[in-house]
């Protein structure tokens, strides 16, 4: 203090028991308070010449104390605080803030206040490169270039709502947004597939102003009220998800397999779909969809004079203008893209399930190869004449129940790659209608998730209960994804459970040589059987389908009956075979699914 010429210093974690004032040498005196010599304790160090100016000392607790001084006729209140750290009880944290509030409220208006406290705020592992912004605005996180302010808006409550409403009204009336919102940072994100050194295997995500994203949400909500998107679009639509599209495609393939009829599917891939959307085409599609001209101009202003920089491991580029495509990372872009796809496909799409779209993921189905080839060419023409481009190398063709000599599909004379399996919306579908490859993919996805958190799961200092919670949160959802749409065989269920038990044994540090039963492993980690969770997810999804309206694609697929006979021999396992077995096991019927609460109670397996 003497070297740095500090006259008043607030200190925390003194760990001195008692409430005294003690001279600490070099002309300084410490006023402190503590109740335990092993933890906490706060104090204020004063230069000796200011000690006689002390009028009052308030020792509230071993975490809060204050001093009142009169210096040259000015009342100065010095508050020292020490907030509870991570791991402390919630009651202790609330008590600290309550005590601090009481001290602050007791200080008369007009008197000066200085707070010196360790608030134990967590802002990241380090501040290298963030010295100018760390700790200024964010809540528990680093405030990257002043953009991470959503948490701050939440903390401000009603005051934030009133301010944002006023700001957004001004933007709407003037049709001009703040210039700072036009700047963004483009960060390349690896797609986790292909060559890591190839730029084509990276997706650019824009880091934009968070307040602008709130404004985009307001605009999106108003656009959704006036724009009606076609039923074939499953991406970013209310009451629709990837599961709807995956389920419809799987049941369609199952029906054609059982009827011994061919089904031809083409999975269309668009090249750089977000980056290729022409701006003029976007304005045209918005107007054609019935968007008011004022909101068209508001969206146009969002894209006017937009500038960005690219940030990568070796540094940052110069700022440049972005004059084509939609903003990656924007809250409004997904719905704008849905509007564009809705208008571009208006003349070529067929009803579901013959045409299904999830944003830019398009699947075209038909009973004949010639028809699906013709439909593919019509789609190509409709998209490419408006600025989009079909990727020939990634567009793939699959035939269900294929007969000899059925041939392949061509696009502008170029043969489309023919496959026996395809990863559609994260779930692998096979031309034979089976799900064996998907089970192996789920096991692989589970191991990938396990490796990401293996530092926690394999740490001997962490309890088995916490490990089980991390496993259920991170690993199990990856293994369960999409399995509610398939009917697993006993062998496939066993394959999933074997993989799960290997992960749990690794996490708990035991092997089969320890001769510990599986039931004990699951009980220690508080993890139930994966087969039970698969059955619960499958029945939950079936109940959801049964409660939907009759026009819903899932209901229509289940109710569809195709002409034809199943092949001789042992019949292939169907989705409803698994559902009937599941319902028999839990004592439920199809009629029970109409009551959601009762259905959930009946199918719940009870395991965590």
From TrEMBL:
Coiled-coil regions listed: none
Family, similarity comment: Belongs to the beta type-B retroviral polymerase family. HERV class-II K(HML-2) pol subfamily.
EC number(s) given by UniProt: 3.1.26.4
Pfam families, per the entry: RVT_1 (PF00078)
Protein name as catalogued: ribonuclease H
Superkingdom to which the source organism belongs: Eukaryota
PANTHER family hit by this protein: ENDONUCLEASE-REVERSE TRANSCRIPTASE, REVERSE TRANSCRIPTASE DOMAIN-CONTAINING PROTEIN
PROSITE patterns: RT_POL
UniProt-recorded Gene Ontology molecular function terms: RNA-DNA hybrid ribonuclease activity
Organism from which the protein derives: Hemibagrus guttatus
Domain Reverse transcriptase span(s) in chain numbering: 170-429
Class of enzymatic activity (EC top level): hydrolase
């Amino acid at each position: 203090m003497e070297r740095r010429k500090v006259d008043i210093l607030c200190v925390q974690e003194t760990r001195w028991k008692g409430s005294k004032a003690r001279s600490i040498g070099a002309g300084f005196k410490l006023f402190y308070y503590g109740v335990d010599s092993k933890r906490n304790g706060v104090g204020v160090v004063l230069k000796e010449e200011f000690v006689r100016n002390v009028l009052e000392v308030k020792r509230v607790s071993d975490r809060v104390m204050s001093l009142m001084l009169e210096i040259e006729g000015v009342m100065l209140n010095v508050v020292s605080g020490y907030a509870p750290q991570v791991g402390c009880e919630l009651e202790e944290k609330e008590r600290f803030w309550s005590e601090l509030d009481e001290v602050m409220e007791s200080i008369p208006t007009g008197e000066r206040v200085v707070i010196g406290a360790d608030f134990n705020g967590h802002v990241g592992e380090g501040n290298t490169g963030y010295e100018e912004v760390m700790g200024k605005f964010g809540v528990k996180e680093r405030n990257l270039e002043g953009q991470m302010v959503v948490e701050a808006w939440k903390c401000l409550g009603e005051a934030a709502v009133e301010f944002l409403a006023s700001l957004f009204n001004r933007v709407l009336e003037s049709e001009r947004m703040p210039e700072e919102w036009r700047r963004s940072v483009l960060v390349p994100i690896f797609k986790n597939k292909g060559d890591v050194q190839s730029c084509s295997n990276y997706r650019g995500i824009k880091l934009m102003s968070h307040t602008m994203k709130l404004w985009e949400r307001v605009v999106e909500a108003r656009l959704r009220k006036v724009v009606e998107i076609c039923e074939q679009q499953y991406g970013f639509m209310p009451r629709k998800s990837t599961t709807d599209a995956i389920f419809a495609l799987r049941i369609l393939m199952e029906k054609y397999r059982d009827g011994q009829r061919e089904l031809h599917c083409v999975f269309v891939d668009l090249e750089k779909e977000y980056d290729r959307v022409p701006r003029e085409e976007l304005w045209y599609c918005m107007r054609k969809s019935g968007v008011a001209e004022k909101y068209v101009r508001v969206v146009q202003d969002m894209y006017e004079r937009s500038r960005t920089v690219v940030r990568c491991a070796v540094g940052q580029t110069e700022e440049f203008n972005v004059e084509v495509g939609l903003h990656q990372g924007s809250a409004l872009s997904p719905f704008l893209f849905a509007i564009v796809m809705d208008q571009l496909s208006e003349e070529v799409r067929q009803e579901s399930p013959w045409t299904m779209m999830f944003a830019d993921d398009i699947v075209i189905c038909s009973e004949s190869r010639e028809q699906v080839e013709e439909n593919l060419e019509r789609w190509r023409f409709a998209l490419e004449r408006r600025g989009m481009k079909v990727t020939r190398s990634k567009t793939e063709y699959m035939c269900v129940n294929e007969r000899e000599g059925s041939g392949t599909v061509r696009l502008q004379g170029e043969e489309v790659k023919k496959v026996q399996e395809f990863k559609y919306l994260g779930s692998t579908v096979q031309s034979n209608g089976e799900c064996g490859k998907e089970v192996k993919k789920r096991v692989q996805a589970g191991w990938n998730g396990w490796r990401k958190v293996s530092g926690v799961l394999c740490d001997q200092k962490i309890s088995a209960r916490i490990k089980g919670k991390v496993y259920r949160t991170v690993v199990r959802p990856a293994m369960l994804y999409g399995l509610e749409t398939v009917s697993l065989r006993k062998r496939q269920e066993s394959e999933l459970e074997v993989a799960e038990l290997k992960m749990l044994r690794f996490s708990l540090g035991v092997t089969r040589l320890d001769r510990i039963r599986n039931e004990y492993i699951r009980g220690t980690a508080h993890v139930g059987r994966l087969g039970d969770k698969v059955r619960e997810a499958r029945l939950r999804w079936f109940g959801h389908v049964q409660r939907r309206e009759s026009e819903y694609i899932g209901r229509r697929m289940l109710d569809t009956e195709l002409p034809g006979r199943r092949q001789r021999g042992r019949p292939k396992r169907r989705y409803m075979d698994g559902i009937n077995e599941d319902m028999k096991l839990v004592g439920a019927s199809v009629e029970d699914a109409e009551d959601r609460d009762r259905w959930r109670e009946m199918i719940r397996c009870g395991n965590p």
